[in-house]
Amino acid sequence: MSEFEAQVRANQRRVFQIAYAVLADAAEAEDVAQEAFLQAFRRLRSLREPERFRAWIGRIVYRLALNRRRSLLRERSRETVWQGSQPSGVGSEKDTLDQLFLDRVRREIDLLPEKLRSVLVLCAIEGMEASEAAWILKVPEGTVRSRLHLARKRLLSEVKP
Known about the structure:
This protein is mainly alpha-helical. About 75% of the residues lie in helices and about 0% in strands.
């Protein structure tokens, strides 16, 4: 097994999780994850510090996921056909309320400025350390920490169960 294959196996789940955290769609996340590994393979020679492969591929997938998200949002905004939402099954009232709350949280996260949303997704949702998120976003670690604090504060003020 080549070194690259070993890296793909070791980072496959994390790459998917980063893409999914940004896109909230498994199929789209899988596509973006595959594209990220393809780009990484093509640009492998440009990686100066092989021991930083994990953070490097994280940055690649994060940027690709953001681009895909923007593209999907543009597509949706161009759509002119409105579809009514029909409940697909019978669930408990608590399940319905939980889903409505989760939908609201996702909408509020989407409304955050990109700088805050990025940090929130990487650190709070994906569980990255501030130092790794700082490297991916190319900002100081202190900036990541302050943006995370601000993002959480805004989210809490907007979303109350």
